[in-house]
Design goal:
This protein is an all-alpha fold and 430 residues long. 64% of the residues lie in helices and 0% in strands. The longest helix is centred in the middle third of the chain and has 48 residues. About 8% of the residues have low confidence. It is found in: Nucleus. It comes from Phanerochaete carnosa (strain HHB-10118-sp). Its main location: nucleus. GO terms for molecular function: protein dimerization activity; zinc ion binding.
Length: 430
Amino acid sequence: MLDEFSRQVERKTGIDWGPVAWRINCLAHVINLATQALISTYSSVPHYNLHDPSTVEDSVSSLRDEIGLIRAIAVKERSSAIRKELFLDIQWRMAVSRPLQLILDMKVRWSSTYMMLHRAEACKEHIDVFIYEIGIKETNLNKRRKIDSLKLSSFEWQNASLFLGLLGYMRFAPALEAAAAKVDEYYNRTDTSDAYIVTMYLTPDQKGVHFKKHWSADLRLQAEQSMERVFAERWNKLHRSSSSTASASAPRLSRKVSTLLRELSDDEDEASAIKNPSAEHGGSLSDQDKPYWQEYHSYLISKEVVPLGMSTVTWWGLNAARSPTWASLARDFLPIMASSVSSERAFSQTGITISPRRNRLKADVVEALQFMKCLLKHDLIFREPGPSSLVEEDELAQDLAEMTLNAQEASVLGPWDLGLLDDDDMDLYE
């Protein structure tokens, strides 16, 4: 898919978009894959398959482990409304103030396995009673035998508790090694993209401190070279348009300045030093080969303080004028999402909208429905108008209109107390 996207981008824009270099793995998915590697190494029982519920039971009978047993019990408890009610009734009989249902894990979310084990450990006494009661209600002896085999021993409950906490016991070493190998696999894939290195250098109060602390000298040098290469390419790209005009005017300006300085100075050595100003700063010919070096190096050696609560994006928005090339890199690299969960959630919500009965909706209709759901969920449709100059002008105009109307009515009717005075009382005011 990314190969095709790269071809389309190059065909329409002429930009060479590398599908490998710009493929950023979702951090949440990497964590899930590593955890699933740990779980699958310790437990060989597959996850629950909605289309083949017997898979869990058959696997438990041949491969008995704590996670598989708890998963099979959760499938049994959630298989019907009658069994759910039975499990709640058992808890009521045991004086539980807040009965709970068991949780069934899923393969795409590693935390669901943790929640399943955590809930089962909290309800292990009720689970034993539940297994006993559904077993005695089963008339088929073969099925009753399978149900009774789901009961965990005290040793198996202890193992489930240890696995839940990942306390580092030797029996879990193969599982932990499998998880670490999966993390190492995806960590090595970061070599294919410069985004990871660039974003770490774009953190103003860190600037590659991670490389100095945790990487060897050779790897740290490679990271620095990669960062300098990316910065040089961006600097050349930003200055490419203005380089032609600047190169035409620079020789004439430098000759005029050097001639004027030689006329004002009697010291030829001083004049020669001014003619080559890089010498007095310890510069060399390499500075001419790296015109970007001053901006690049000044940011790396400066000590920045990021206020508490301020994001990196906000900081670069406020300091873009100081380091325009660095700010340009920040605009391109910082928006990269570390996790695609939020975007996938939007696709999942769209999948709920496009049901089998609404399978012919067009893209614009689905987009409008998604916006409508967001507005309704966050109460953004009906709101009082906020303070603005237009609202204040309208209120002022209404007040002036009311005052003018009252003044006109008063001029027509006259003062209210004149009607109360008699003609004989007028001499009181003379």
